[in-house]
Amino acid sequence: MILRRPPMPAALTRPLIAVTTSEVRAAVPAGVTPEADPAQHEMVLGLKYLRAIEQAGGIPVVVAPLPEPELVALLERVDGVCLSGGPDLDPVAYDARPHERLGPTWRDLDVFELALTRAADERSMPILAICRGLQVLNVARGGSLYQHVPETFGDEIRHRQTEPGSTPTHGVTFASRSRVAGIVGVRATEVNSFHHQAVARVGRGLTATGWAPDGVVECLEARDRAFTLGVQWHVEGMVGDPRQSALFEAFIDAACDFHEAGAELELAA
After folding, report:
1. Which is more confident, 264 or 95?
2. d(CA 133, CA 83)
3. Phi-psi bin for 205: left (phi > 0), alpha (psi -120 to 50), beta?
4. Does residue 7 sit within a domain?
5. Of 131, 159, 221, 256, which is the active-site residue?
6. Residues β-bridged to residue 44
7. Which domain, by its residues, includes 187?
8. pLDDT, tens only, 135-145
9. φ and ψ at residue 124, rounded to 5 degrees
10. Closest to 198 (Cα-Cα) out of 103, 127, 244, 134
11. Has residue 33 been placed in a domain?
12. Average pLDDT rounded to a whole number, residues 80-107
């Protein structure tokens, strides 16, 4: 039995959502002064993820890479996991050789995110996986990736758009009766696109339920979980569209249910 905290007061029942940050960048100070911090690598996360979670009713908690033994303590305190976008995954994670067009990778972060995903998945914790996050979810369940989309799918659709993130650039069609279609309320919609890797072999227990016109997988779902959903587009940049914000709202609703179920187990123990 997984022990979780007891029910919170009504004013504090907004679920806590762990949000990964997988971008590692070199700090570029605006100006060098005697008081400035020295340049160093920094973890970076776009604020749009946090604002989208807050808007949907959750409280985001940005998660730094942790040693695997500490993941249990983290997951006992949160109600859902949002896997954010970021750089390419090192293909060693799915037993493949690096493609010549492979982008920058950070193996230590891959190890952390894969361990976090598997640990959350084992607990049936709600997971919303976005862009790289969808790829992490797929690899965590034994799937693989195409390392350079144009090589397999051609250039008819630009999966690395130059337009702003709030601008949709290609369509996505959803499987009938899929969870994602039920959430957004339509069988097809327009999305943004900022990736050059994509799902190849689908991981265990996952089902592809959304596709771009060129066949690139745009959505994965786990039918054996209450809420495990991955989207290839950057939905956090499109929450001005109610169909897109509905994905965050459904995720937060699932996190509330997860918290309440854990609280009931705690009381019954």
Report:
1. 95
2. 5
3. left
4. no
5. 131
6. 23
7. 15-24+40-268
8. 999 999 999 99
9. 55, 30
10. 134
11. no
12. 94
Q: Is 131 a catalytic residue?
A: yes
Task: Match 């989208």 to its residue by tokens.
Answer: 52
6 φ, ψ to 5°?
A: -70, 175
Report how far residue 250's alpha carbon sits from residue 254's, in angstroms, rounded to the nearest whole number.
Answer: 6
Q: For residue 5, is it within any domain?
A: no
Residues 202/140, Cβ–Cβ less than 8 Å: no
CA distance between the termini of the chain: 9
Tokens read off for 269? 């123990």
Give the active site residue among 219, 236, 256, 259.
Answer: 236
Q: Is residue 30 part of a domain?
A: no
The catalytically annotated residue of 170, 195, 196, 234 is 234
260 is catalytic: no
What is the C-alpha separation between 167 and 241, in angstroms, rounded? Answer: 11
> What CATH number is given to the structural domain containing 110?
3.40.50.880
Structure tokens at 263: 């609280």
Q: What is the pLDDT of residues 95-124, one digit of tens each?
A: 999 999 999 898 889 999 999 999 999 999
Q: Quick one: 266 exposed, middle or buried, by C-beta within 10 A (0-12, 13-18, 19+)?
A: middle
Average pLDDT, the chain: 89
pLDDT tens column, 11-67: 457 999 999 987 666 666 555 566 666 666 677 787 899 999 999 999 999 998 888
Dig out the tokens for 205 from the structure. Answer: 């227990």
Total domains present in the chain: 1
Q: Which two tokens stand for residue 201?
A: 């072999």
What is the amino acid identity at position 216?
A: V
Q: Does 82 participate in catalysis according to the annotation?
A: no
